[in-house]
Amino acid sequence: MSSMPTGTSLTLRAALISLVMLLIGLGIWEGASQPPEATEPLSEYEMLMGGADQEARVPPPSEVFKLAFSEISDPFYDAGPNDKGIGIQLAYSLYRVLSGFFLAAAVALPIGFLVGMSPLMHRALNPFIQILKPISPLAWMPLALFIIKDSETSAIFVIFICSIWPMLINTAFGVANVRSDWINVARTHELSPLRTALTVILPAAAPTILTGMRISIGIAWLVIVAAEMLVGGTGIGYYVWNEWNNLDLTSVIFSIVMIGLVGMVLDLMLSGVSRLVQYQE
Amino acid sequence: MPGNNALAMDKTANVTGLGAVQLTLREVNMTTKSLGNPYDPNVSLKHDQSCLCPQCSQGGVPLNEKELEAKLSDMPSRPENNGTKSGGSPSIPNTPEDMLDRAVENAVVRAVFNGNEQNRRQFMSMMGGGAFAALLASIFPLDAAKAAMKEASGPLEKTKLNIGFVPITCATPIIMAHPLGFYQKYGLDVDVIKTAGWAVARDKSLAREYDASHMLTPMPLAMTLGAGSTAEPYIMPAVENINGQAIVLHVKHKDKRNPKDWKGFKFGVPFDYSMHNFLLRYYVAEHGIDPDKDIQIRVVPPPEMVANLRAGNLDGYLSPDPFNQRAVWEKVGFIHLLTKEIWEGHPCCAFATSQRFAMENPNTYGALLKAIVDATHYSSNPDNRKEISKAIAPKNYLNQPVPVIEQVLTGRYADGLGSVGNVPDRIDFDPFPWHSMAVWILTQMKRWGYVKGDLNYQKIAEEVYLASDAGKMMKELGYEPPAKTYENYTIMGKTFDYTKPEEYINSFAIKRG
């Protein structure tokens, strides 16, 4: 340990390097995407063509920052059903993701326990899991819309169906791999199966279960953007679609950054929870 | 029909004179149960639980499909064929107007007899219905009551409505009715909701999330026939726009203006059941190109079209505006031709709703249709087009640069080839849903194999395209509707005779099946 620098100075130096890389990247981007300058007054045809301004190019970061500032300074405005602030859009998406995610957890954890504890159920359910797991959540969308007849619930269903598998499989794996000595100890103490599950297996499998939940929330956040782009209405996915409709890359880049930030926060929250249940053998 | 229970909501309206006569609007709807002739002693106006009249005895039993069809074809919203009034039976009225009249008479007569059915029947048989009618008319302003009833059309069943639209200039009247207050004017509180595409508009309509929606003119026909979706009777009381589309090619194809050079091209259209698809197919086929073999036609959502054109993934597309003009604005495409050059005055988008919505909410439906017809006429006026461009450009509606929309709506536009075009009717707005337009669309659906088997072209056209509703609303709002609902068209020099749809299909060299 002595040859390694201390924790804080390592973090600090890494942050410094990140910052320098970010600035260099933004600088190159800014320099490479300046709009061409208009020289002469434009003819009517050129005006109708949008002048030189509309030459296809990626907007420079300064434009994105400007937009980000104006959007974030008023995140909760509501100008009708199709134009809401970024905060409202993110709240809609988060609401859908979290409802679908917790529904999935409520179903996946008990089934995962069952599959992990009983080799019989494992064999019986495995074919279903294997077939359903690889289906793209968006492939469910038309069917969900048709059967549920409500786009809001359909979106939540799609989140549910995509977050369920990592949780289920990880729970089953964690439960099945609890060290047999511990279960044997529980048996010698003549604990009931329920108590064994709750006091021995659950704590032992908790880190694996949390890992599954962390994967799930990541997938759910990936999927909600695509689902909302497909169905429209509200949410961050709709926001991207609406700006794409206008081929407005500045707003698209801004929303990509927002999606990344919120996804990171969600992941940090779950990694915080999983640190709580971590244990040293 | 599952809707019957919802119809039983008691909505009351006051009729002037003779105190407050309670008139249940349930009777005004298509349940013809209580619309018996009140002057006839042999007709019962009372239908309680023990009632054994044919309508009541059937009441609780779900109708089978045949009966349902028979009932549907009896509905008041069904358009009348040119001049020929369907059925002449006096016992039960069959137009909405007559039904309203009868409902008013009914309510007044029952009020006179204090609801005592036995007294009324005795009285009628003693005195004779005709004489009583004359007596009643002398003491009660029955005609005025009827007129008042029709004018007010009773309270709106539903004022908070969701209407879907796809963000293109064709939706102008549906959108415009919002910022300009046309919906409000008719007592409606409407949310116009942006929809990601046509399939979503269809599914959300079928799921009843939308009360009415912007659609493509072939969609209500396809939905009614169950082509590409579950079959549900849809009605189209108003066309949104005529013309308003274009064929756009990638700038690298500037020298390939002859469609014969297009073999191997990849084209985009917004939806299978769209005028875009049918017009593109028609256009290339007239130039000897088979749209299924010589070129590829893909369904691409309009916003993706410009991006795909830029990426070289499409060689061209026939799409709604503003995406044609947007391609020029982005300097990736040029306008090869406006679709009005294929068929001058062709229909494009539509205002559609389910038959069920119109039946359950007749007054709301009427108010909504008035707002749309009004907004359509407003949009059609060239003087308003600049104002409209600004009003529909914001994020809440089209979310496009104003100059792009303005070029589409005013018809003064850059074509991407170096010249400025001046075509004021590049897009126009005309609500009248010609039955002959529906027949043409059906011929193309048949021609390209989207529907199979024998079609009763005119019957379907009249069931889905409600020309009589649109005509009535136009008249009420002071516009002149056409005197007929069918006409022949000349499309690329070829005559379409609406009376001979099958011959028309067979006259094409390139067709399926």
From TrEMBL, chain A:
It comes from Oleiphilus messinensis. One of its GO terms (molecular function) is nitrate transmembrane transporter activity. InterPro entries: MetI-like, MetI-like_sf, NtrB. Keywords: Cell inner membrane, Cell membrane, Ion transport, Membrane, Transmembrane, Transmembrane helix, Transport. The chain crosses the membrane at residues 12-29, 94-116, 128-148, 155-176, 196-213, 220-240, 252-270. Belongs to the binding-protein-dependent transport system permease family. This is Nitrate ABC transporter permease. GO terms for biological process: alkanesulfonate transmembrane transport; monoatomic ion transport. It is a multi-pass membrane protein. CDD domains: TM_PBP2.
UniProtKB/TrEMBL annotation, chain B:
Residues 73-98 are annotated as: Disordered. Signal peptide: none annotated. Transmembrane segments: none annotated. One of its GO terms (cellular component) is endomembrane system. Keywords: Cell inner membrane, Cell membrane, Membrane, Transport. Residues 79-94 have a biased composition (Polar residues). Pfam families: NMT1_2. The keyword Membrane applies. It comes from the Bacteria. It is found in: Endomembrane system. InterPro entries: NrtA/CpmA_ABC-bd_dom. This is Nitrate transporter component, nrtA. It comes from Oleiphilus messinensis.
